Structures are given as C-alpha cells and as structure tokens.
Amino acid sequence: MGIRRLDWDHWIELDNQWLRFHKEKLARLCGERGSRLCMTAPEAYDAALETMELISEYLVCRYPSLFEFESSTTQKQIRIKATGEIYPIYSDNPLKYAAFLIQDDLALMIEGADGQYYLKAGAIPLPGFWRLEDKFNMPLAEIHTSGNVPQFREKLQLGMERFFQKLTPERAVVRYNYSIQTDGELSWSSSIGSEDTFGLGRKDARLNPSIESLHFRSERQALRRLPRSGAILFTVRTYFLPIIDIAQESGVPGRLASALRSWPDEI
User: I want to staple 6 with a disulfide (CB 3.0 to 4.6 A). Which of 52, 69, 100, 174 is the partner?
Assistant: First the structure.
C-alpha cells in the first residue's frame, strides 16, 4: 500500500497554488455539475459535519494568518482572510464548505453492517480521471475493481481491508501515487473524454501526444479515522505540473524514466 505515518502538523498542507485551487473548486462546486461532485448520504451527515469542524479548527490553529473564526448571532463561522469569504461551520452541506477551505478533495468511508467500508460522502471537484457519481455507495473493494486498478486483488485488497479495520483516531497515515496526464486540465482530463459521458477507454485517444501536453499528476492521500463518528476520512491533495517543468530539476528525468520502465505490463 506504500503508507507511512503522518505527523499531525502536516495533515493539511497549503501552498502558493491555494488560490488557483480555490477558484477552480468554487467554479466546479457552484456550477451545473456541483450536485454530482459533492454528495452526502444521510447516514454520513454526522461524519461530514465532524470533518468540517476538524478542518476548520486545524486551519485556524495551524494557519492563523489565513483563517479565523467569526461568530454571528446565529452560528459559528470561518473566515478566509485572503478573500474575505465566510462559511458556516454547521450547514446542510458541510463537505462542500470544507472543500472550499483547502486544496484537497474529500471522501468519507462509513463501515456497513457487513464490516465493509462504503463511500458515503465526498467533495471531489478535482478528480482528474474518475467521477464520484460512479463510485458513490460502493464498498472499498468495488471502488478499486470497477476502476480496473492493476494488481488490486492480488496485492492490495486484503491488506487494505485489514488496515481500515485497525486504524485508530490517534494515528494518521499518508500515501502517494502518480500518473502521466496528456493534457493540462486540473479538474478533469478531457483527453479521456467528456466528464458527462465518461467510460473506461477512448477510441480516439492520441497515440503520440506532444511533450508540451504531458503533465505529471501526483496525489497525496492522507487517511484518518474520525474520533466521534468512526468514519475514515481521505483528504486527497493533487500536485499537477508540466513534464517540461519538472524535467528541469536535476536527476528527476532519470528517476521518472526508471520508474516508468519498472511498471508491470498490466499498467
């Protein structure tokens, strides 16, 4: 699984791309596809609310120059100092507002009566290659098998299911993945087709895209169990850079080429 322990000081990371991500999330979550990019099942509402509470408290403590709490006569709110925007801590759609605050996408897994974990809530405006509406309410294993994740059953499924059962609220972990994208669109890779009609594979995919169109896409996936609800929260931060930019870093082209050559045939 490639996981390692995460220091709480680094649970949520912000950088100089925050405003770009924020604007893209606002456009997406408030746009015509918004209700398909942010979904919460009734049984996951308490976990979604807990997520907003924890993220807000963390940001105000960790980044006090960027965020502060405000109290109105009716409710507690959080203010983004850079933009002046104010969002409620308690609302009917807490994951949406939580997603506006950070660069990460959010997903909540809830344990079912059968012991499996199901995707019951998410704010996923910047997925790149998959749609929340396709995975919503799916158990953990089916999320991966339906997406044809290579070697999932053979190498990942059993360990992942055990890990979910054993994760405690006192511990957070992080893992990374990466891929090569053939266009420069952060939210949805149009090179794989329309987001509205997406299906696996595309007959008109370009066989020889130009080096200028290639982008390195990496996800930082942090996992923690929420202390009150017991849900598993994924915070998924995407790093997205043109290949020609990262190729300027000493040693990076060779390491990336070596990593690509190590991929098995099914990838």
Answer: 174
